[in-house]
Amino acid sequence: MREALTRAVDYGEKLGADYVEVRVQRIFKTLLTTKDGRVEAAKEGIENGAAVRVLTKGAWGFVTLGTLDPRLLADAVKDAVKMASVASFKVKEPVRLAKTKAIEDKVTTKPKKDPREISLEEKIGVALTVDNTIFNYDDRVKSCTINYLDLTGTNYFMNNDGTCLEQDRLYVWSRVLASAREADVFTSGREEIGSTGGFEVFDIETPEIVGTRIAKRIVNQLKAKTPKGGTFPTVIGTNVVGVFVHEAFGHLAEADLTLSGSVLHNKIGRKIASEAVTVYDDGTISGAFGSFKYDDEGVPAQKTLLIKNGEVMGLMHNRETAYKFDTESTGNARAEDFRYQPIIRMRNTYLAPRDYSFEELLEDIDFGYYLKSFRGGQANLDGTFQVGIEEAYEIVKGELSSPVRNASISGNTLETLHKVDAAGMDFELWSGRCGKGQTAFVCDGGPSIRVREMLIGGGS
Amino acid sequence: MADLKPEELINLGEKAVQVTMRRGAEEAEAFLNRSSRISVGIERGQIIRNVKMVDHGLGVRAVYKKAVGFSYTNMLTDNTLNETAVRALRSAKASKPDENWKGFPSLKKPSITKNTYDQRIVDLSFSDLVEMASLMLDAAEDYDERVFPFIGGVGTLLTSRTIVNSHGVEAYDEGTFVQCSLGTIAREAGKVTPECSEFNAERTYKINPEWVGKEAAKQAVSSLKAKEIASGTFPVIFAQPGLHGILYYTLINAVKADYVQRERSALKGKIGENIASDLVTIYDNGLLEGGLQTWRFDGEGVPSQKTTVIEKGVLKHYLYDNYTAKRDGAESTGNALRGGLTPYASTPTLEATNFTLTSGNKSPEDLISEIDEGLIVYDVQGAHSSNPESGEFSVVATPAWKIERGSVTYAVNGGMLAGVIFDVLKNVSALGDNLRKIGHLVAPWVCIEKVKVIGKQC
Question: Is there a domain that residue B254 lies in?
């Protein structure tokens, strides 16, 4: 493999590329979908492929192909250089890359339970046990869809800066969607489990624990009321804090989006949040779904401080944006697989815990909402965000009260971050997938927090 | 390899089916896809992201004792073909029988489609695409100096699909796509507008990059000086991107037989009932000329068709794939989708094709002029957090503008729209004449009465 990569990299240089990088992947996936206890299809697949990325006269050329054929790899290098050269005539401000250390390394995964050694029958068994647990919880449960994926394989990386890596990849992921119905009230819930550790993730998040958690949520929501629209003091649970930190803040701190005009533009060193807010993006948490040793530009992952006590300390970078900011790459360049270019992605993004107990967060609120789990979220470069809430409760006189369904929150990220007046000592990380033209496996989370006022929508 | 001819692809499919059957499968199906994409990407005002992608692959479904197994590969050699067949069958054996499994579809002649392939798209050179991207970029930048085009590009796709199954289905189709898009923001006095984008996507070579660039810029400029909106109930005009947002996660799911059979649809048992304003007629038109989802056959080889979903407000028909149809004793409506970047790598899912809301006769100007106080919503944010079961949604309208006394006045910031899609459908009061394709939707601008808007001031 090393020889083939060297040849491709050398060829790119010979054709005049300033930077050449070749990635080769061998991937094996097992996928499962069950719907209401029925196995829709058990699936296995193999994907091999290569990606060539070159920088010529300040423009990128990228070619991906689903083959490892050396002859075609050479053609790909040629095509990439040609595309970059043609486009470079229009470039006003050439792309350049921050320097990195050349690294040679081989990274192997050592799971306790390698998903490749677990039978398909056992994987199906786990999914069906979750399904069973959910349906047996209450007869108002109407549907349950479970997806399972494990991905194993090896990534090879080489560039003309002298970095050469061989890195094993291992992901185990499952998503559970369930719904309940009583008369005209429909409720639904979702949950994701993800790990880079191994199949042992199901020893902690057992099918029974996961199933019961989601079943309880959707059944409780059947008697929930819809929220009053308006602005209220709000306590946000760890799951919703996660999606808020990721969607509403995290994307704005991806340096490519910052450069594209996100509201964090020119905010480094400035205070954008209350004292209670400290945020990290950390690629080094062992076993977490967003962790890895080297990113897809061959840069080591690290723990990156984004906000410290309300002040912006840094952004998430790849080599291209790091050069523009005159800093170093933070190792956030990730590609879903050989079909994609590495771009700036989050890893495990979280708000740091403080010292409030959950009861203390609630106690001063006369009437407000506690937002426990989310359904989805989205944000805009201008800092407006929206998060759909699956499970919420009213807070009445400092205590949790009636369940509330179908709420949603929205607002402006920076205004909201200033209104965070307390952070709890509880802490949880949640696994998920993030889309930015390609999928990345990530975690997000934090402690429960209190926001003085939050715009609550939903209901009808 | 990337140059495999249609006959060769069919041969590979036949071989995969034969091997799977010989190994003991009761039924087998092979799906092959081949695609080649080129795109010229714009990032922060520059054409610097240039991509070429060539991929192909095979997906095999095997049935054993009413259990379905699947396997795929992106390498097409005799060896991997055999391996894929073996794996598919092994997966079926590891799986559980499904009492509702009643077999793959049988042979039917693929439909005839129009304007789904254009040789001019295939012949476009990389330099042609750079030129188009450049035109689009210039049009946006020349419109107003406050505009910053930060993302976009021009791209082409040539793709083919082949399906063979053990019941005699054997079909091939190929198609072309060309698209251009530009996302912009405008900046003034430290304020940033929301993302404003415009696009063209077509099957034949008739896109207008200059128009896209100019429109995206125009939208961004008119989003400056936004005001906050007070809560209330207003008539709202939805442009196609906003409409796509609220329909895709609610109504489109609710008419899928899969959702109906699993009690996940509020439209269960409502065939023949009035569920929308009588202005609303919707077809799922898999045969739409030049449609973004138009193919001769679906992901299981069932001929594409035009299905009446809602006629003058009355629910007529659900959307079926082979499995859900056989479960209901109905016919598949050709709605099995093999989608995504690598269609061979997944089993079919039930999905709308060109979900077409028929147009009315009002020009966009007429629609606006008839509103005394209301909103025009170009796009919405957060639609994917809608509740697919109940049809409840709660989204941020962005970009959006206030309409006062029949004219668009100013941009509004951060207003939320909340409601239930089935109420929305009943409150459709006018339809534009400006039909447009976006994703799985084809629709005009739509005016909806009594939409709940939640703003910062109550």
Answer: yes
